[in-house]
Automatic annotation (TrEMBL):
Catalyzed reactions: (6R)-5,10-methylene-5,6,7,8-tetrahydrofolate + 3-methyl-2-oxobutanoate + H2O = 2-dehydropantoate + (6S)-5,6,7,8-tetrahydrofolate
Organism name: Nostoc flagelliforme CCNUN1
Keyword Metal-binding recorded: yes
An MF annotation (GO) of this entry: 3-methyl-2-oxobutanoate hydroxymethyltransferase activity
Family: Belongs to the PanB family.
Cofactors demanded by this protein: Mg(2+)
Stated name of the protein: 3-methyl-2-oxobutanoate hydroxymethyltransferase
Enzyme class: transferase
Residues that, per the record, bind 3-methyl-2-oxobutanoate: D44, S45, D82, K112
Binding annotation for Mg(2+): D44, D82, E114
Active site feature: E181 (proton acceptor)
Chief location bin: cytoplasm
GO cellular component, one term: cytoplasm
Subunit structure: Homodecamer; pentamer of dimers.
Source organism phylogeny: Bacteria, Bacillati, Cyanobacteriota, Cyanophyceae, Nostocales
Amino acid sequence: MAITTQQLIQWKQQGRSIVALTAWDYAIAQLIDAAGVDLILVGDSMAVVLGYETTLPITLDEMIYHAKSVRRGVKRALVVVDLPFLTYQESLQQAMHSAGRVLKETGAQAVKLEGGYPAIAETIARLVQAGIPVMGHVGLTPQSVHQLGLRQQGKTQEASERILQEAIALEQAGVFSLVLEHIPADLAMQITQKLSIPTIGIGAGTHCDGQVLVTSDVLGLTEKHPPFAKVYTNLRETITKAVQDYAVEVRDRKFP
Ligand code: KIV
Ligand code: NA
């Protein structure tokens, strides 16, 4: 049975932790869905597996292409797709067009937008009114990398208060869930207690209602990963070894 946004809110009430991971194509999505992940995010962090330095260059067409591939692999998880940089900030019309394309063309159930400042909260409220489920994202927002860097956010009293207010504004705007990225654990706990929608943390401590990681980090597929990621296996080593073994056998005429 497919997981819904209402199900996630129920799980928060029941204290059941939500398991989320990212995916960028059919093969990965099919594996992580079958392994029991609750929410699959087609994150613009797929920039790393596409060879980009930041998330900024990814286009809406690229996100849609990958989201369609992911969607074909998923039977159970809720599929959420990131709206990439400057496909929603320009105007409400632009955001509606981008989010609408994602839902209509990919079959994903929801979109995610970065930021909690008033104009974004307003845009999100209108998307939600139009029937588009939206996930929020505050704290470190990688689409603002040239302003924020990749540092932990919310370290000062003032910054921490601002992020809390953004979280409240996004809940009022109607997000069904909120990503908290790279903020102090006590701030994430405070936000989690304050909101009735589930918080999904990444580098935000243990007190969130769920956790998300970037799958290429979890699998050890990329050269670098952020300090808060946990690498559960090293696919770079596994793949390198398999390819080297194959190359040796072909050159020695042992395979086939
Ligand atoms: O793009 C992404 O992977 C994300 C997660 C880190 C939440 O936005
Ligand atoms: Na993202």
